[in-house]
């Protein structure tokens, strides 16, 4: 009997528990994130009323804590009251069963909800709205009650990670299979040992079949295939048993051992669905995303050569045993038509022969993944497809040839670069090279901001102009007050200050030309990364006075 799967908004148990932790987190950002995810769940499908009530109460508490948009006290009280009223109504209404309606207080006591929540709901609905302090306390206690009533119970009843269960079941099955195989090879243990090994193998197989029958078809892609392509299952632990490029072929005994498991999964989810998902998972593991890595590049966590060759070999095996090329399918149909025309009496036998013809497996995802993400591994997969399908071989030949030429060119460039780097002498860092580099940067700065001499002349002209203005103002003040003999003028002090500033600027410019000095390597000392040579942490804060400095040069 087919089971109708229950549709939920979360994709996995891990996501569900992560949202629970976020809603009850002490961090404000995490709580806001949990509320946002629950809102996304609402848009997808219906969610349990306990989750909806928790999100409403958390959102209300976050709004109160942030005081968003200047919420007034009266408005805040109304929002709290509405959230609490909906919390009580949504939880209690689930217990409203039978022909006659029961009171809310009776239903609340039945599920263990504090009665004062019901009284608070009655006051907020029919009487005066409670004070803000009472509402805040009620919100906190309601969240605590929901945590005990719903979230903690769900955490205890929800299954653990599905992938862990699948990995454990497959490990038990493979271990029992190996034990049975070793007993058959030795042929020493007698009938009791063989019977024990056979019984253990049958138990492991039944457990794996029972676990697989409980999983939805989406679990094939999400959980089963990632475990199957791990080392220890479809990838032998011993590297010498793995396939090798360019042949990419597996031993007959190894494929026969897994054929029984594949048949079990095919009976549960359907042969086409299982093998298509297995091929898609293998291609996803073999082909990195070119948009992230660049064409023909390999990620840092790439598969080993033997691992990748074994995955390609499994694609070859699947295509050989469960894929029907287009030309072969047409020929088979034509042959069946001819048999039906010539032998009308053998219609039943012909129909039985037709059932042995493999059904079509869609490899569009395989082709798209390999063509969008060209690499050495994807080229090997395309060559395997070309061997299995003569029609696609002609269409894929230009792509396979292009990938081969591009990979050869990249290998040649890489080898040339390595040989050139090995032959090139290592340039030693010296004080002269540092000074030459500094001179280059000085020329670049002068091309943008002007030379040091021109800036000094402009600065000196500006200082002289300020000095003349100050002298003129002083002379006017002296003439107006008729006190030239009593008070000294400020011209002499201004001139001294301008001369001192100009001298300091020249001195800084002269010192800048020799500020880089090469320190001999013999005096170098080890220090932690990010610290100075003496082990101290540098002060890298942005000074406040730099905020007033313009980013673009301002003409003098």
UniProtKB/TrEMBL annotation:
<dbReference type="GO" id="GO:0000470">
    <property type="term" value="P:maturation of LSU-rRNA"/>
</dbReference>
<feature type="region of interest" description="Disordered">
    <location>
        <begin position="340"/>
        <end position="360"/>
    </location>
</feature>
<feature type="compositionally biased region" description="Basic and acidic residues">
    <location>
        <begin position="453"/>
        <end position="462"/>
    </location>
</feature>
<protein>
    <submittedName>
        <fullName>rRNA-processing protein las1</fullName>
    </submittedName>
</protein>
<dbReference type="Pfam" id="PF04031">
    <property type="entry name" value="Las1"/>
</dbReference>
<feature type="compositionally biased region" description="Acidic residues">
    <location>
        <begin position="340"/>
        <end position="356"/>
    </location>
</feature>
<dbReference type="GO" id="GO:0004519">
    <property type="term" value="F:endonuclease activity"/>
</dbReference>
<dbReference type="GO" id="GO:0000460">
    <property type="term" value="P:maturation of 5.8S rRNA"/>
</dbReference>
<dbReference type="GO" id="GO:0030687">
    <property type="term" value="C:preribosome, large subunit precursor"/>
</dbReference>
<dbReference type="GO" id="GO:0090730">
    <property type="term" value="C:Las1 complex"/>
</dbReference>
<feature type="region of interest" description="Disordered">
    <location>
        <begin position="452"/>
        <end position="505"/>
    </location>
</feature>
<dbReference type="InterPro" id="IPR007174">
    <property type="entry name" value="Las1"/>
</dbReference>
<feature type="compositionally biased region" description="Acidic residues">
    <location>
        <begin position="463"/>
        <end position="479"/>
    </location>
</feature>
């Amino acid at each position: 009997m087919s089971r109708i799967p229950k549709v939920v908004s979360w994709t996995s148990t891990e996501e569900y528990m992560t949202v629970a932790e976020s809603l009850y987190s002490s961090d404000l950002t995490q709580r806001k994130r949990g509320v946002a995810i629950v809102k996304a769940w609402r848009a997808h499908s219906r969610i349990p009323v306990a989750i909806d009530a928790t999100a409403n109460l958390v959102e209300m508490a976050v709004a109160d804590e942030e005081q968003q948009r200047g919420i007034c006290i009266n408005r805040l009280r109304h929002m709290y009251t509405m959230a609490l009223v909906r919390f009580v109504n949504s939880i209690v209404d689930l217990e409203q069963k039978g022909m006659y309606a029961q009171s809310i207080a009776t239903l609340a006591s039945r599920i263990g909800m504090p009665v004062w929540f019901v009284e608070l709901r009655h006051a907020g609905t029919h009487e005066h709205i409670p004070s803000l302090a009472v509402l805040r306390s009620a919100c906190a206690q309601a969240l605590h009650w929901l945590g005990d009533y719903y979230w903690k119970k769900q955490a205890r009843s929800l299954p653990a990670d599905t992938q862990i269960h699948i990995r454990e079941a497959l490990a038990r099955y493979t271990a029992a299979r190996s034990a049975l195989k070793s007993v058959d090879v030795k042929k020493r243990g007698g009938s009791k040992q063989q019977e024990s090994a056979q019984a253990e193998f049958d138990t492991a197989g039944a457990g794996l079949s029972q676990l697989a029958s409980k999983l939805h078809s989406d679990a094939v892609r999400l959980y089963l295939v990632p475990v199957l392509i791990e080392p220890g299952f479809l990838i032998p632990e011993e590297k010498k048993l793995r396939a090798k490029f360019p042949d990419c072929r597996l031993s007959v005994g190894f494929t026969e051992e897994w054929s029984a498991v594949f048949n079990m999964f095919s009976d549960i989810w359907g042969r086409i669905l299982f093998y298509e998902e297995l091929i898609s998972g293998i291609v996803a593991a073999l082909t990195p995303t070119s948009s992230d890595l660049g064409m023909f590049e390999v990620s840092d966590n790439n598969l080993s050569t033997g691992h990748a060759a074994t995955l390609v070999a499994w694609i070859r095996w699947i295509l050989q045993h469960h894929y029907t090329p287009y030309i072969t399918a047409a020929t088979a149909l034509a042959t069946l038509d001819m048999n039906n025309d010539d032998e009308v009496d053998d219609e039943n036998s012909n129909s039985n022969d037709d059932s042995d013809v493999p059904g079509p497996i869609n490899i569009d995802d395989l082709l798209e993944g390999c063509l969008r993400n060209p690499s050495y591994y994807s080229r090997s997969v395309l060559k395997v497809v070309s061997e299995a399908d003569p029609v696609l071989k002609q269409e894929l030949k230009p792509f396979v040839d292009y990938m081969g030429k591009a990979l050869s060119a990249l290998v040649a460039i890489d080898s040339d670069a390595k040989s050139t780097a090995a032959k090139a002498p290592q340039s030693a860092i010296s004080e002269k090279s540092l000074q030459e580099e500094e001179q280059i940067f000085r020329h670049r700065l002068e091309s943008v901001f002007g030379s040091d001499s021109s800036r000094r002349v402009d600065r000196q002209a500006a200082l002289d102009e300020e000095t003349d203005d100050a002298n003129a103002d002083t002379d006017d003040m002296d003439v107006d007050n008729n006190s030239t003999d009593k008070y000294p003028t400020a011209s002499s002090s201004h001139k001294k200050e301008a001369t001192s500033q100009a001298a300091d600027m020249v001195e800084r410019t002269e010192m800048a030309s020799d500020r880089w000095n090469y320190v001999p390597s013999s005096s170098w000392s080890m220090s932690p990364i990010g610290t100075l040579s003496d082990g101290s942490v540098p002060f890298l804060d942005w000074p406040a006075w730099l905020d007033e400095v313009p980013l673009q040069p301002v003409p003098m």
